[in-house]
């Protein structure tokens, strides 16, 4: 499992860029609004966790050798964003729709942050579980 979590120079540049842009956004929003710095820090952390981390895990585990352009950092960013939107946001929509109309729960009762974070954790765990299963299956087959 250790070889699944090896980061190269492009991964480091990607995360430094995301954290740098997030830090600039947090500082600008906390200076020009009445909300506190820590409130924006929490919002940005949740946003990165929901909108980027599950897709990055899927990309890193299954599509690490995918090359779409001459800029691998942009490829990783866009692919990770796409995989997160395709998985977490679709499941979030279905969950919210089912709770609202299927189980007749009021929309105000639904805590969107808790549902989205739970779905992001489940998608990330499922990606790691599937990759672990595929590795064990390939090891059992042998060369």
3D architecture notes:
- With 143 residues, the protein is mainly alpha-helical.
- It has one domain.
- The protein has 5 helices and no strands.
- It has helices spanning 9-32, 37-51, 53-62, 72-102, 112-141.
- It is flat.
List the helices and strands and how they pair.
Elements: H1 9-32, H2 37-51, H3 53-62, H4 72-102, H5 112-141
Structural class: mainly alpha
- Count of distinct structural domains: 1
| Biggest sheet record | none
Distance between the termini: 19 Å
In short:
This protein has helices at 9-32, 37-51, 53-62, 72-102, 112-141. The chain is mostly helical.
Q: Which features does this protein show?
A:
single chain, 143 residues, mainly alpha, 5 helices, flat
């Amino acid at each position: 499992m250790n070889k699944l979590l090896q980061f190269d120079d492009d991964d480091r540049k990607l995360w430094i860029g995301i954290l740098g842009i997030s830090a600039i956004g947090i500082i600008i929003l906390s200076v020009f609004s009445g909300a506190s710095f820590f409130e924006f820090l929490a919002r940005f952390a949740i946003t990165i966790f929901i909108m980027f981390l599950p897709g990055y895990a899927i990309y890193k585990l299954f599509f690490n050798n995918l090359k779409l352009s001459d800029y691998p950092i942009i490829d990783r960013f866009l692919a990770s964003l796409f995989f997160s939107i395709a998985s977490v946001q679709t499941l979030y929509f279905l969950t919210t729709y089912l709770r609202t109309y299927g189980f007749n729960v009021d929309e105000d009762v639904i805590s969107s942050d808790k549902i989205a974070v739970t779905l992001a954790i489940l998608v990330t765990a499922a990606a790691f579980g599937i990759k672990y299963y595929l590795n064990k299956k390939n090891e059992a087959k042998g060369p």
